[in-house]
Design goal:
By secondary structure, the chain is α+β, with helices and mostly antiparallel strands. The protein is 28% helix and 27% strand. Helix 3 crosses helix 4.
Length: 179
């Protein structure tokens, strides 16, 4: 019930504490933008507690002319352990809004440059929004991106992160994988 839900600020603090405890090499965030609307009335500033921690300890994959708060799906990484070799950001062609997109980055381990990993971070359409009918075509687009990355970087593992806005069966069927 609603009385047991964390507030937005509590969620950001909880996430910051979790990242401090686990110190993951990569973090995929979704719905990151300049403000968050709560109950269509109250607009709050960007998740400062979380971003203050992350920007001190992580770098984010940059794209010319695109700020962190305009990416929607930023990938953050530990720059003391990884470097970005290549990256791209892609807006879905089947959704008319900016929020349904993905980005990917090929990372190289600084200590062992032979070790590489691709992180692909997505934000899929939600069942309750105007783009629910675009969910399957969106995952088809993501699948095409995965296939292109697999073809280009055959021996590099791909880590998929994101806000799927669906259950795993839909993703398995659309992507052709068993997640």
């Amino acid at each position: 019930t609603e009385k047991f839900c964390l507030t937005h600020e509590q969620r950001m603090e909880t996430m910051a504490q979790m990242f401090k405890a686990y110190q993951p090499d990569f973090i995929g965030l979704q719905e990151v933008y300049g403000g968050t609307v709560i109950n269509d009335k109250e607009t709050i500033n960007m998740q400062q507690t979380l971003l203050n921690y992350l920007t001190k300890n992580y770098q984010y994959v940059t794209f010319k002319g695109v700020a962190l708060t305009a990416q929607w799906t930023p990938i953050l990484y530990r720059a003391d352990q990884w470097r970005v070799v290549e990256s791209a950001i892609q807006k879905s062609t089947v959704c008319s809004c900016d929020m349904h997109r993905w980005q990917w980055a090929l990372f190289e381990n600084i200590a062992n440059p032979e070790y590489k990993v691709i992180v692909l971070n997505i934000h899929a359409p939600h069942n309750g929004d105007d783009h629910a009918d675009a969910k399957e075509p969106f995952f088809y687009e993501v699948n095409q991106q995965i296939l292109a990355l697999e073809a280009k970087y055959a021996d590099v593992p791909i880590m998929l992160t994101g806000d799927y806005n669906t259950n795993p069966d839909v993703i398995d069927e659309a992507l052709g994988y068993n997640l």
